[in-house]
UniProtKB/TrEMBL annotation:
It comes from Nocardioides daeguensis. This is MarR family transcriptional regulator. The lineage of its organism: Bacteria, Bacillati, Actinomycetota, Actinomycetes, Propionibacteriales.
Amino acid sequence: MTAPRPLGYWLITLDRLLEEQVEDAVAARGLTRREWHALGRLEHGAVAEEVAEEMLPALERLVSGGLVELRSGEYRLTESGSELVGELQTGPVQAVAERAAEGLSADEYDALLGSLERVATNLGWLASRPDS
């Protein structure tokens, strides 16, 4: 085993590796990482046009691709967009999650997630916040 590394090192490393591998998985379907994040956000509900500024370039491409629509001042997934999100989540994105958890028992995985949630809560994260 290598020398112990702090929690922050592992969190940053895992985040980077997960982002890279999910980015590769969705790129095979012609999506960028930002577009995938925008689709994931829209899966949880419409986003008002005035608060979508940081996602705008990705949203514009998704609108032109028929995956997202702007209706009544809100960006929403189209049926095609919703289907694509479902396909990616149960296919290549799920494969990344499964690869990440390989070698962990269900109990170990649950304990890992519980521990990470506790650390986040200790640092001020609240599950009831709208952005959580």
